[in-house]
Design goal:
It contains 16 helices and 13 strands. It is α/β, with parallel strands linked by helices. Strand 7, helix 9 and strand 8 form a beta-alpha-beta unit. The N and C termini lie far apart (66 Å).
Length: 410
């Protein structure tokens, strides 16, 4: 009989991360930390945003990719590298390979956003579109590695990747030495694991909190049973943390060092993206603002000292951004959709719009329904989509319509 012998999980220590920091000098940016008055007022503690969305390639992924590829032996470099990614890791591997003079091949899903595909190509990678989902893309990349001898660069499950990502933690401690809590988004876990190793080695009193999208939260059940487990069909708009199974290497670290893992809803992600854009003037992808979503969802958990929320990336497809902004505005009570019936006569619609004008509701769209058999002979149904100023304004609009004699149906 063949028995599978469990392999020891490689450890990552502070010296690994310090070595990675030296290696990355002049390669990755020391990204800024920006204060947020709105989030500070909400939590009762100073809140700072670590802007990895402003990193080269638009995310923290360059850090780990560069350290991993730089550590390859000469014969491995000569064979080239291969990766699979829907976006951020792809761009990190592509740029790191170009900087190090290594040939790179990157497999991306067929439906990957065109701006991410174009950016990966511009950084020097040979991009190959394969598969409808990332799991299929991963298999294709691994098969390519087996066939050609290229080194597969995993996005999170390798100690060098984790060491590179951990440099974010060192920078946070240098830039905000008074920090008491650090929030980090979790997909496979490479960034959270690296930050936790760096921070807990130097400041064990600092809380490190991981954040996952509720629809792709593999860590809470895995931590409960003590080993990585897969979840079926993870669903979230935050594709950067849409991972169905924790990595073996980061899982062990997170289980030992991360204080808690919280989950956030899609509505919270939308609201967080909108807040970053409107209040902080920062373009952040859904995965990148998961930490802000956690602050918005449970602000009472983050009092008692300065908080740093890592904005892990800013690579968002413009079409997705448009949809997310609409969703975020709806979640924040900034859109109002309603139906009501009015008399089918000249001037009826003008009278309705006059009521809305008085309460300063901006009409985005109007549609008439005249053919519904439920309508009376002298009735017409009007569906309105309005832009409002928030939940209180929505309530004011509803009261004004009711006061003017209109019966709102939805």
């Amino acid at each position: 009989m063949n028995y599978r012998v469990p392999q020891p999980v490689p450890q990552v220590i502070l010296d690994d991360i310090r070595g990675a920091q030296k290696m990355l000098s002049g390669v990755s940016r020391v990204t800024a930390i920006e204060g947020s008055r709105h989030l500070s007022a909400l939590t009762g503690s100073p809140v700072h945003l670590k802007c990895e969305n402003l990193q080269r390639t638009g995310s923290f992924k360059l850090r780990g990719a560069y350290v991993r590829i730089a550590g390859l032996r000469p014969e491995q470099r000569a064979a080239g590298v291969v990766a699979a990614s829907a976006g951020n890791h792809a761009q990190g591997v592509a740029l790191a390979s170009s900087l190090l003079g290594v040939r790179s091949t990157v497999f991306m899903p067929v439906g990957a956003p065109l701006p991410k595909v174009a950016a990966t190509q511009e950084y020097g990678a040979d991009v190959r579109l394969h598969g409808q989902v990332v799991d299929e893309t991963f298999l294709a990349a691994q098969e390519y590695a087996d066939r050609t001898g290229a080194v597969f660069i995993h996005p999170f499950d390798h100690r060098d990747i984790i060491a590179g990502q951990g440099t974010v933690g060192l920078e946070i401690l240098e830039q905000c030495p008074e920090v008491r809590t650090i929030l980090v988004g979790i997909g496979g876990g490479g960034l959270a694991a690296g930050v936790a190793v760096a921070v807990k080695a130097l400041r064990p009193d600092v809380r490190v909190i991981g954040v996952q999208a509720a629809g792709a939260a593999a860590y809470p059940p895995s931590l409960k049973v003590g080993h990585p487990i897969s979840i079926d069909e993870p669903m979230t708009m935050a594709d950067g943390i849409k991972v169905g199974r924790p990595g073996d290497v980061p899982f062990k670290i997170i289980g030992e060092l991360v204080d808690d893992v919280r989950t956030v809803s899609e509505d919270a992600l939308s609201s967080a993206l909108l807040l970053c854009l409107e209040r902080a003037k920062l373009v952040v992808e859904p995965a990148g603002c998961s930490t802000v979503a956690a602050l918005l969802s449970e602000p009472e958990l983050y009092g008692g000292g300065p908080v740093v929320a890592v904005l892990s990336g800013g690579n968002v497809d413009p079409l997705l951004l448009q949809r997310i902004l609409r969703h975020g505005m709806a979640a924040a009570g900034r859109y109002l959709s309603l139906r009501l019936r009015v008399a089918d006569r000249p001037g009826a619609l003008a009278g309705l719009l006059a009521v809305l004008s008085v309460v300063d509701a901006n009409v985005l769209d109007v549609s008439h329904v005249r053919t519904d058999p439920r309508l009376g002979l002298t009735e017409v149904e009007v569906e309105l989509h309005l832009e409002t100023k928030g939940p209180e304004h929505c309530a004011e609009v509803a009261r004004s319509l009711h006061g003017a004699g209109y019966k709102v149906m939805s």
